[in-house]
Amino acid sequence: MAVAAVVFAAAGTGAWLLFVRSSITAAEQAAAEAEEHGYEEGLADAVFGLVTSYQHAVFPLSGPGGVLPQERIARRSFAYSMAAAEQLPEPVRRAAADALAVLGVGEDEKVAAEAVKQLAFAIHVHRKGL
Q1: Helix, strand, coil proportions of the chain in percent (round to 5)?
Q2: How far apart are CA 2 and CA 67, in angstroms?
Q3: With CB atoms 3.0 to 4.6 Å apart as the test, which of 29, 34, 54, 125 could cross-link to 79 if both were Cys?
Q4: Residue pLDDT, tens place only, 25-84
Q5: Could you please report the per-residue DSSP string of 39-92?
Q6: Per-residue model confidence as pLDDT tens digits over 83-112
Q7: 78-85, long-range: CB within 8 Å, 24+ apart, which pairs?
Q8: Whose CA is closest to 48, among 130, 116, 113?
């Protein structure tokens, strides 16, 4: 009888240890996924900020000539380098590339604003997981 009690206790302890280990593993995986998703969201937000900064350099409120060409080039360079990051979700990367292409032409402010709006929508869709 005592041997049976020891066997059951050992089996119960073993099952409990397996449960705890699997719970820890699941929690670690969930934390890693959350960290990766948070990094992607932060990167997408940074790209949006850089693209809109470039947009304001291309179409400054002060009118043509309101931003030095060197500043426009610097903002463009930062936006392109961040938009090319591998960790950026593909739909966001494509929308950023489209917006940067339209801004690169620099002819139609309304078309550029619509492209930036599409970038914002792509970020929103990614964030909501739609």
Answers
A1: 85, 0, 15
A2: 87
A3: 54
A4: 655 665 566 566 678 888 999 999 999 999 999 999 998 888 999 999 999 999 999 999
A5: HHHHHHHHHHHHHHHHHHHHS-TT-TTSS-HHHHHHHHHHHHHHHT-TTS-HHH
A6: 999 999 999 999 999 999 999 999 999 999
A7: 78/50, 78/53, 78/54, 79/47, 79/50, 79/51, 79/53, 79/54, 82/43, 82/46, 82/47, 82/50, 83/47, 83/50, 83/51, 85/43, 85/47
A8: 116
